Amino acid sequence: MHSGPAKSTPSGWKGELSLVALIRGRAVRQSLSGKRNPWLRLGIGDDCALLRLRAGEELALTTDLSIAGRHFRLDWHPPEAIGHRTLARGLSDLAAMGARPVAAFLSLGLPRKLTGDWLRRYLDGFFALAEAHKIALAGGDLAESPIAVADIVLAGTVGRGKALLRSGAKPGDLLYVTGELGAAAAGLEQLKQLAGRRTKSRPSRKTESQPVPLQPLRIPARLAPSLAPHLYPQPRVSQGLWLVRSSIPTAAIDLSDGLSTDLAHLLEESGVAAEIDTAALPTHPAATLSQALHGGEDYDLLFTAAPSTPVPRRIAGVPVTRIGRILRAQAGTPRIALVTAHGSHALKPRGWEHFSQP
């Protein structure tokens, strides 16, 4: 964790060096609590971390940015959930390529008011997921910022030439997805409703020149299971590792932006088209068809396989469902066709895309 020159700070406020010590202490306790990471030769403390690759391995790198007001809301999301989601985003990218997580690099830009209890709770969520996947925090950066920003860089290893790519799907391949679709989008809608009820119940503060910042929502125990897919999504790391060992997939991608959008990315890279059978979609019981098709942050895996290749119904305990097939791309025909009881029609990507929202 890099630390710049010490700065004078108001009395009673912990400066950057204290925060670095806090985060480094958490990282050290994590490394001591389990088996030593064989890929990490040198972690926090120097200008660079040193990673050790084994013979025949390649390094997979990914980065994801989380910004308050865009990827999370301080008045909605518990700090533990924000920390968890920061890491889950990158872990899902590694899972999509069949890479084993090795090290994380976390850079935080925070307003001064978030450097106390909020940061500790954020780290609780971050390190809980890191420990579950045996990934070490190897470095990062800290800065004071007017808004909360978290940037995660993850390193993983995969056998040389074995990584799952978006570009290998062929006409005739079958299309599969892990888990259930739309659960995260349904959870987000429920979180919005919970926030709306709290706003209506708050007394008017018209006489105050500055409104009091809202605390994160208190999640009722009865709603915790239905909100968990949004607040604490589980990246399919074990499933990705199984898939790369099996050599079953011809192409793969994770569902971070929504099925319609992520499938479009895979089809574009492979130069093919696809059709999806609506009746086959493993839609979460709480989700609508629209949420299953376009809702993001499910972090399940979408992959293709040759029709002659047997694909198990479950991988590492998670259901696998065949939802369609790959077609030859032809001019004048839709890239994605949605097959319903009333016929077939074009499915336009309507998942998340930055800079496209009004």
Tell me about this structure:
- With 358 residues, this protein is α+β, with helices and mostly antiparallel strands.
- It has two domains: 16-159, PurM-like, N-terminal domain (60s Ribosomal Protein L30, Chain: A); 174-187 and 230-346, Phosphoribosyl-aminoimidazole Synthetase, Chain A, domain 2 (Alpha-Beta Complex), CATH 3.90.650.10.
- Helix content is 30%, strand content 25%.
- The protein is built from eight helices and 14 strands.
- Strands 7, 8, 9, 10, 11, 12, 13 and 14 form an eight-stranded mixed β-sheet that branches. Strands 3-6-4-5 form a four-stranded mixed β-sheet. It has a two-stranded antiparallel ribbon with strand order 1-2.
- Helix 2 packs parallel to helix 3 (117-132), helix 2 (79-96) runs parallel beside helix 6 (237-246) and helix 4 (183-201) packs across helix 5.
- It is globular and about 60 Å long.
- It starts with 15 loop residues before the first helix and ends in a 12-residue tail after the last strand.
- The portion of residues forming beta strands comes to 25-35%
Total helical segments = 8
CATH architecture of the largest domain: 2-Layer Sandwich
Low-confidence sequence ranges: 2-13, 206-212
Under CATH at level 1, the class of the largest domain stands as: Alpha Beta
- What value does the Rg take, in angstroms? 22 Å
Tally of domains: 2
